[in-house]
Amino acid sequence: xxxVKHKSRPASEAFTAGTAAAHQAALVAAGSSPMExxxxxxxxxxxxxxxxxxxxxxxGIGPAQLSALSVLVFSGPRSLGELAxxxxxxxxxxxxxxxxxxxxxxxxxxxxxxxRRIRLTATAKGTKIMWEGRKRRVETxxxxxxxxxxxxxxxxxxxIILLQQVIRNV
Amino acid sequence: xxxVKHKSRPASEAFTAGTAAAHQAALVAAGSSPMExxxxxxxxxxxxxxxxxxxxxxxGIGPAQLSALSVLVFSGPRSLGELAxxxxxxxxxxxxxxxxxxxxxxxxxxxxxxxRRIRLTATAKGTKIMWEGRKRRVETxxxxxxxxxxxxxxxxxxxIILLQQVIRNV
DNA sequence: CAGATTAGTTAGCATAGCTAACTAAATTAC
DNA sequence: GTAATTTAGTTAGCTATGCTAACTAATCTG
Lengths: 170, 170
What we know:
homodimer, mainly alpha, DNA-binding, elongated, Arc Repressor Mutant, subunit A, two-stranded antiparallel ribbon
């Protein structure tokens, strides 16, 4: 059945996170060395997002467009270049992503004083879709959290603060 | 500049996780309601994986191929259909992914008693690449964890166990 | 043994990454 | 003040990765 020839390198996938290597968790015995904690944390993050992500498909928008839109909705208007930086993609990629979003009337482009730059803003429709998606994801997770006793919920809450510190150092 | 026409629906992105909606964290005041904890946790997971993911690019393998390979390396041989299920991808998609992996000599395909099924196994080369990648990711995270005082490291470690329970319920 | 089911492939399309090469606007140099 | 450079974004063309529909081949069922 003659495998297809693949020559190029993979190219980065920018925002499409969560990717590979989620499968080793079961092999690593629970322990508290930094490497073991790191491994469990990594695995937990991957599995968490993989489960939550299915809800994003309900929005009917592709992942790259959804992510770019979320920047505009939750962090405010941006130029194309700023958005590309935020999403860790190249300008041509972002150019196409915003063309799709504009086509779907989820964002608007406006001229700025600097004639080279464009100002991208989420429309009311785009904002609505984004908040609905966030609500779906977070409700799904909150439902799972609710099964935890209050005391442990609190311990988890405190640990998230630690986690946020760690992430800033990665 | 005439936006391009986009007609089709987005199609799922299977394993390419982490996607959208990472950007609302700053808007949500720290709090301990289930929704708020869920929101912070979701955001933390996205940001964590986004930072770790850059290290995967060093492997020179695309994200979908890397993820499929990781199943074969860390969970053992699988048929194409089983691998597609594990990766939440349709069979034609997996068919192409494994063609690429086979081409790169990272996996091997073997016949089974059932003439319709194929048995996919990671090669030594594929296994090596996978473990190196895991090492890179976990080392990056372990370095960040090391900056935490021992007592807090322990609290985080305990919270990860809670987190793993929560994830099973999502 | 004929029809139905199951596993995988092929074909064709869409989204989403990239680099290279282009246009146009703003800034800098002289 | 104009020419060269720099900066912002677009266009073109490639690859990878999703999908569905339609196909082949093998197995199972009646």
